[in-house]
Amino acid sequence: GMIPAIFAGVLMPDDSGKLTKDDETKVAKWFADRNINFRHCPACTQLTVGIAEKLVATPIIGGKGGLQIGGTTYPHIMTICSNCGHERLFNAVVMDLMPGSSAAPEKTDG
Predict the structure, then answer these.
(1) CB–CB of 37/81 below 8 Å?
(2) 9 and 57 in contact (C-beta within 8 Å)?
(3) Which residues have CB under 8 Å from 98's CB, separation 6+?
(4) What is the pLDDT of residues 37-81, one digit of tens each?
(5) Distance, CA of 39 to CA of 26 (rounded, Å)
(6) Strands 56-58 and 74-81: what pairing?
(7) Helix, strand, or coil here: 52?
(8) Of 70, 20, 16, whose CA–CA distance to 2 is shortest?
(9) CA 82, CA 71: separation in Å to the nearest integer?
(10) Who contacts 50 (Cβ-Cβ below 8 Å, separation ≥6)?
(11) Residue 69: CA atoms inside 13 Å, Cβ hemisphere, count?
(12) pLDDT digits (tens, 9 = 90+) for 93-109
């Protein structure tokens, strides 16, 4: 099941900031297609892992080692073990939940 977010994520799929039912289905299918048993915790070995209800984003380290505030980020699905608290991140762009950025503009016919 979904685990309520403790901290608000940065990029959210709906107006309330929660993953939609379609997102939940897409995430479950993504894990299943790759034979990933995300419910199994690698730390405590229990089957007590759920998906956080909101996306999270990792901070970016900018020039000279400073923390970048705002701008580009890496959105993630976070899984959380309700037994031991172990968390894992899966990139939401790779999972096709969020659009990625492109360094080069798309080519058009013409």
Answers:
(1) no
(2) yes
(3) 11, 13, 55, 75, 92
(4) 999 999 999 999 999 999 898 888 888 888 888 777 888 999 999
(5) 16
(6) antiparallel
(7) strand
(8) 20
(9) 32
(10) 1, 2, 3, 39, 79, 80, 82
(11) 0
(12) 899 888 776 544 444 45
The type of residue at 18 is: K
With CA atoms as reference, report the closest residue to 86 among 27, 41, 28.
Answer: 41
Q: Global pTM?
A: 0.73
Q: How far apart are CA 99 and CA 76, in angstroms?
A: 12
Asked if 80 and 46 count as a contact pair (C-beta separation under 8 A), the reply is no
d(CA 41, CA 82) in angstroms, rounded, equals: 9
